[in-house]
């Protein structure tokens, strides 16, 4: 453990002060602390900034729709390095409030200064839910809040909180629409490697871990050639209107096989749209689109489903915030196939954490 000057502190050290709050035992950390800590390191911001699909879309939305920003007051929810605030300032916003709770806020302040925008952008270090804004209302709320499986990390609630507290009556939320989709894939090789692996590890039965592995959705890129069925829209959310509770939902699905194949997993992904732009703008994180850092979310099935072209896998997906840790997501999947070569009906539970 080091103090801010890089000197080691240990319990045996005479300089050790048990009341020194700067010495935080890892055990005392909550998952929220780990979450915000992860955004204090530049590495995660590098990954996001280098996600060209993500960052270029926001840049295009802002630069190609200057009429939205001209003389407007903007709130950037979770500003990170301040990149979206800088785009808005350059597009002619009157003032931008960039709120960031991780240590990255200090860097954002330096970045704003280094680029000569200190008179337009005010960086506020703190949680959106705890800070005081110097203004009572803003015209635009911009945020990049989406997590894996769209809802992991649950930053959406922070955006909705900011919207309800500060957005003017006819204000704009960017992005304002998002949809979650589901499809089914053949994935024998990877399922073997990640799940069946635990059946026989150097001759030993470790299948108790297999049960856990099955419960954790895997974030990975899926090759579009693996897709066996159509893609089904599960849920659309209107960020400008929805209530926080609407992010928990239950939706039916009907996946029709487009060829004879085996199904090993269902795959979820999302689209994001900015409908207030002059021309509808957005991006998809689906397997048929250019890869993003969100990849896709793969939910492996207990059974291998032998499906024939035209047969239908029907079911229901229930998505809810985890009660103990609201940043985690609980997923319940009910599915059944009544096919010529396979009859299965099952319920599976997953946890994104
Ligand atoms: C996905 S990153 C996006 C960063 C930046 N806007 C960008 O586009 O590169 C989300 C940021 O929001 C911050 N954040 C999350 N919850 C927050 C909250 N409740 N209050 C303030 N900042 C928050 C995180 O620390 C993180 O830096």
From TrEMBL:
CDD domains this protein is in? AdoMet_MTases
Q: Where in the cell is it found?
A: Nucleus
Query: InterPro entries, from UniProt?
Result: Arg_MeTrfase, PRMT_dom
- Coarse class of the protein's main subcellular location: nucleus
Q: Basic and acidic residues compositional bias: what residue ranges?
A: 1-12
State the protein's name. Answer: Protein arginine N-methyltransferase domain-containing protein
Going by the entry's taxonomy, the superkingdom of the source organism is recorded as Eukaryota
Q: Which GO terms describe its biological process?
A: methylation
Q: Give the start-end ranges of region Disordered.
A: 1-23
Start and end of every Protein arginine N-methyltransferase domain?
Answer: 176-339
**Single GO term (MF):** histone methyltransferase activity
Q: Which UniProt keywords apply?
A: Methyltransferase, Nucleus, S-adenosyl-L-methionine, Transferase
A single GO CC term for this protein reads: nucleus
């Amino acid at each position: 453990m080091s103090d801010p000057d890089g000197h080691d502190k240990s319990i045996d050290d005479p300089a050790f002060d048990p009341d020194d709050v700067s010495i935080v035992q890892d055990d005392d950390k909550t998952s929220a602390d780990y979450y915000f800590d992860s955004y204090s390191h530049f590495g995660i911001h590098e990954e996001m900034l280098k996600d060209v699909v993500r960052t270029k879309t926001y840049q295009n939305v802002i630069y190609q729709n200057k009429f939205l920003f001209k003389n407007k007051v903007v709130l950037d929810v979770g500003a990170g390095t301040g990149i979206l605030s800088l785009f808005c300032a350059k597009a002619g916003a009157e003032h931008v409030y960039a709120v960031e709770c991780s240590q990255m806020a200090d860097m954002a302040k330096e970045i704003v200064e280094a680029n000569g925008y200190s008179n337009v952008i005010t960086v506020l270090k703190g949680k959106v839910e705890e800070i005081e804004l110097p203004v009572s209302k803003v015209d635009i709320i911009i945020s990049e809040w989406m997590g894996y499986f769209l809802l992991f990390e649950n930053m959406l609630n922070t955006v909705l909180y900011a919207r309800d507290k500060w957005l003017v009556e006819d204000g704009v939320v960017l992005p304002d629409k998002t949809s979650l989709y589901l499809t089914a894939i053949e994935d024998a090789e990877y399922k073997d490697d990640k799940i069946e692996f635990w059946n026989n590890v150097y001759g030993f039965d470790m299948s108790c871990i297999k049960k856990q592995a099955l419960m954790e959705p895997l974030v990975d890129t899926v090759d579009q050639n693996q897709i066996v069925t159509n893609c089904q829209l599960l849920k659309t959310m209107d960020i400008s209107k929805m209530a926080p509770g609407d992010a928990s939902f239950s939706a039916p699905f009907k996946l029709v096989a487009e060829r004879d194949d085996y199904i090993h997993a269902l795959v979820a992904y999302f689209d994001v749209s900015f409908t207030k732009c002059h021309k509808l703008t957005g991006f998809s994180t689906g397997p048929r689109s250019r890869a993003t850092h969100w990849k896709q979310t793969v939910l492996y099935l207990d059974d291998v489903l032998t499906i024939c072209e035209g047969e239908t896998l029907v079911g229901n997906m229930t998505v809810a915030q985890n009660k103990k840790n609201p940043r985690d997501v609980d997923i319940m999947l009910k599915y059944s196939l009544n096919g010529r070569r396979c009859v299965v009906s099952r319920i599976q539970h997953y946890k994104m954490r």
